[in-house]
Amino acid sequence: MRERKKARTRAAIQSHALRLFTAQGYAETTIEQIAAAAEVSQSTFFRYFPTKEDTVLYDRLDPVLMRAFVEQPAELTPLQAVRAACAQVFARLDAEESELERARQRLVFSVPELRNRMIEHIAAGLGMLAEAAAERAGRDPGDFTVRVWSGAVIGVVFAAYFSAAEAPENLVDVIDKAVTLLEDGLPL
């Protein structure tokens, strides 16, 4: 019960932050405004997000995607499982959640300090994917092959993420295309 309340509070703070950033601009929005909109104190804000940037960079879908990846049918190859997990998770988002995720992505693409901090999150994503891939394959997360495979997947997803910013399409479709290219051996 307590963990669900924490998750709801974190989601509310992030949702209000994203709405404010979209309405009045990232630089123009203050932590005080975010806390007031979310009806929390500034100290509560900082318990959930150490910085304003973290309200954008926190990706609440990552753990959901990793769990969906691990739970895909065993007969799927790991890359098929990645594609299926992405499709499954993004299909479950309601219109408001989808729009907030798109707003989050637009902010990362358009605010230089957020793009720079995204590199830290890519490293964390690599670790999460390696853990999930190892669990799915029954291998050690530190296994060289698991780490390299995870790095390749993160690399194509990262490239897809920035390609989607340049030529706006549905991010899920762009990621699916990128993972399909990886699955096909990245033919040029």
From TrEMBL:
DNA-binding region positions on the chain: 30-49
PROSITE patterns assigned to the protein according to its UniProt record, in alphabetical order: HTH_TETR_2
Entries under Pfam families matching the protein: TetR_C_14 (PF17754), TetR_N (PF00440)
Record keywords: DNA-binding, Membrane, Transcription, Transcription regulation, Transmembrane, Transmembrane helix
Residue span, HTH tetR-type domain: 7-67
Transmembrane region(s): 144-164
InterPro entries the UniProt entry points to: Homeodomain-like_sf, HTH-type_TetR-like_transc_reg, HTH_TetR, MftR_C
Gene3D superfamilies associated with the record: Homeodomain-like (1.10.10.60), Tetracycline Repressor, domain 2 (1.10.357.10)
PANTHER family: HTH-TYPE TRANSCRIPTIONAL REGULATOR BETI, HTH-TYPE TRANSCRIPTIONAL REGULATOR RUTR
Name of this protein: TetR family transcriptional regulator
Taxonomic lineage of the native organism: Bacteria, Bacillati, Actinomycetota, Actinomycetes, Pseudonocardiales
